[in-house]
Specification:
Blueprint lengths: L1 E10 L5 H18 L3 E6 L6 E9 L3 H16 L4 E10 L1
Antiparallel strand pairs: 1-3, 1-4, 2-3
């Protein structure tokens, strides 16, 4: 089962693209180290207070994939500098 999430976020304290990149680098690196998912910024690369992640997880069962993706979303929510706004799931 393949699970895909589109996840839009706002980074309130970012005053420049450099600030945004520092926050994103920290978040993306920790997610890649801790969870068995692929994650990348897929939109708003030149906007300094918005971002959109694409997150993909693959496993043999939908329950296991869904659990992993929800854990990633909870981890993103644990960062005080990022607020998750629009999130959508797709299953393949």
């Amino acid at each position: 089962m393949i699970g895909y999430i589109d996840c839009e976020c706002i980074i309130y304290d970012s005053q420049s693209l450099k600030d945004k990149r520092a926050v994103l680098q920290r978040v993306l690196t920790r997610i890649k180290q801790k969870y068995n998912v692929s994650i990348s910024e897929i939109e708003f690369q030149d906007t300094w207070q918005r971002t959109k992640f694409g997150i993909v997880a693959i496993s043999s069962s939908k329950v296991q994939t869904e659990r992993e993706l929800h854990n990633v979303l909870q981890f993103i929510d644990s960062f005080p500098e990022i607020e998750r706004t629009v999130t959508s799931f797709e299953w393949f």
